[in-house]
């Protein structure tokens, strides 16, 4: 199956686009006809804009947004909140040890996203009380359905799980859903056939618990996204606009016997290909190029010192571009440059 078919006439039309469909020879080339919109002229700067065909979907100011994804999704949430959007996926409060509960709800792989969407929207009992709980020491548990290995007694951990379930029923009334695909490796609990959000820990591996680490194919990711889409369209009341992107934040480590740089590139490539195939099959899902913006700009401007997490000012640039492209009414009332400076 092809992603798309381009006729000869359509192919000729691409040459009328202002340089963005051609790589070019760079902004400093002395060759006649050098175009500042050529890729070679736009790459590795502090910011970048991409060509968009047609009129992008528009979001009304004050819309309610629900974001599902990694820590990058949390950054997007914070910056969109400063633009006046209501963020239904925020979780107020802290854990007993002072950690923000927002980070606990991060979602990293499509299998874990799908499990949570099923639980929230259609099958509340899909996650049994004892499923994905890890006894760290006698009477103290972590919940691998979430991100941080925040421990507590069983009553506390299950109480948090119940509270998150109730809080995230807000997804049903969201105007916009934003899915950020993060990682392609996922922990799998062979005891109950459920995928974990939290990766296996060294301690768990040393204890030889019945865990596996699965790396997904493009087809498996696409299938998970289709099921998530079905759940959203079936149970969300406002027929929300759906955006999908790929997080530029790389792996912390890989469980495969390969260089983490190679494993990260492989995983991100699979997720990006899955997003492309999914969007080609479902016409009302919009891909937003957060990943490409980060990978195409000056890395010193994009990444923090750990070369993993994204500088807040660059996230602001990404959100500014999102506002410019998809929130025309907001961009008209508040210039994008000002919107970026807000953060």
Automatic annotation (TrEMBL):
Residues 29-38 have a biased composition (Polar residues). It holds the Pfam family GSCFA. Residues 65-322 form the GSCFA domain. It comes from the Bacteria. Coiled coil: none annotated. Residues 19-38 are annotated as: Disordered. This is GSCFA domain-containing protein. It comes from Fertoeibacter niger.
